[in-house]
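Hello forum,

I keep getting stuck at the same step: I have a sequence, I want structure tokens, and every attempt I make locally crashes halfway through. Rather than fight my setup again tonight, could one of you with a working pipeline run this one for me? It's a single chain of 644 residues.
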Amino acid sequence: MTPTPFRRVRWTSALTVAALGAGTVRARRRLRAIPVLPAPPSAAAGLPRAAGWRLLTAHGVEAGPATFLAACAHADREGLWVLDLLPADLAAERVLGLLRLVDPGRYREDRLAEGRGAGYAVLVAEEVLARAGVDPAAVNPGGTDPGAPGAGLEPAELLALTRRLKEYAAGSTGLAIAPALSVGRTGDPAGAVRAAELRAQGLPPGALAAAQLAGVALLAGLAARQGRWGAAAAGLYWLQPYLVLGGPGAPLRPADLPWATAARPARSLGAAVRTAGAVLRTPAETNADADRAAAAYRAELAGGSARFLEPRRPDCPWCGSARLSVRVRVPDLLQGKPGRFTLEQCGDCGHVFQNPRLTLEGLEFYYRDFYDGRGGEGAGTVFGRLGDSYRKRAEMLRPYTEHAPASWLDVGTGHGHFCNVARALWPDTRFDGLDMGDGVAGAERRGWVDTGFQGQFPEFAEKLAARYEVVSMYHYLEHTRDPLAELDTAAAVLAPGGYLAIELPDPESRMARLLGSAWLPWFQPQHQHLIPAPNLRAALADRGFTVLAEEHGPAHQGNDFFGAVALTTTRLAPDPDRPWAPPATPGRRALARAVRAAALPCFAGAAVLDALRTVAARRTDGGNAYRMLARRDDRPPTAPGEHR
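Reply #2:
Ran it on my machine without issues. Output:
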């Protein structure tokens, strides 16, 4: 048989060429979407616009008055409150790195996008600085004299500040190229400096250095073993800086572009090696706050963890049946805190609940350092990646109302991520948030919620009675001690005809049985009740609600397999530096690194399986979660607790 051309194709190389080609085209498109500051206005026209603005710069950066005024005029014209300025001769690899992280065409509209920039100069409205608690005089005197280099910040500090300021200007942050901006330095940093800059952007320097080394090794192997296709893949990578940044009409002209292109493989390899070396040489962070936290945890655990659990109850809290069986027993796989937890299932109604459940003291102990404190940044990063889910939740109401609701209370709002996204879909709606944690206060300061209430929802039943047209409870009821009391409170604070939106993990999901204790939505010890959909429908009907819509497939969260790998990895090698554990040893740290490295292929495979599982869930309307939208009838709600 005559061989076909397809039999000569080296598919690994071909796929690599396709990926690199798509990345190159995407980078060129994104680059051309970044506006270039026009010539500055006259002093007479520009000075009034400059009032209320501050320019924060990195060490040695010179932004003259002309650039300052041009940036102020651009920000005023575009309605921006934060504007990151890119010098026209920005180093090539720094440009490519920024374009991988940011899509300028969507950056402003994406209210959950993390703040990114070049790390040279940022124009900020003084009102945003005030809400963010930043003293411009303390961080950079260049705002007073924009033409002076000033003391400035380290680039990592400015990158971290840009990331923070985007939260306070979620829909009004942008990028622009400032042709006259003088940076006083060239080249892409490596080693400790690059590691610090990656950490400032919430990126793991060790993992990225490892990925960069693996990528260079892959390309070298393809070039050596797969002939023309392998050489094409390596060549495309080699030429990528010029293909993106070279040619006529490019808005950026890096001074190092020729050298960055000619020596790219060697420079990439060297940068990755130096960054990885800096990560390995960096000792574990120690500071007075961490020492105090560890001492406090040791004192709290001196008497054991048994006191964090109430006595086991003999009956189902939902229907009162005594037909109970153990569904799963697990340790704390979320943080690795001591304790073991049991979920039991009712044989009559199917309700799954924590038994024995946590005491109030136990709730405080196991929630501490998860959503706030030590784990606050990680939790915020996870919530910030759920924008599509937030939009679908907010859109569920559209078919059932002819006008935008005037008021919406999001119960269990956390850091306010849902409200931040939903206000783009419902711009005329007042969004308030309620939560137990400190994050709700931060959400109010950032403007993500209009008013933040901190405390237990039932405590606000009288104060907020009949105030809201919509109440939402997204992945909230499963955390509560008494879900029926929470539903009573929702009925009380809703105006007649108001809507209640709920989303919950589905304990009847097939994946719950397949993955057993590694099924992420068990989420022990935080989830105290997992409610089957028929039970929730009946409870809503008892409280005068009419269920308008119920979604299973669209509510699916594609994390079953990835979550199982994450929980198993934590179980095998928990964080050795967690303050509630004994002091870390070199051996435990080495074990944790080894387990995490070994888990990387598992995470990759899990991501593929989750993608396939999500497609199946959408088509079969079956997933690991469900949503309900219900309308409160015009009759007044009964008193809290009457239905139980």
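The CA atoms of residues 90 and 603 lie 35 Å apart. If your local run keeps crashing, start a new thread with the error log.
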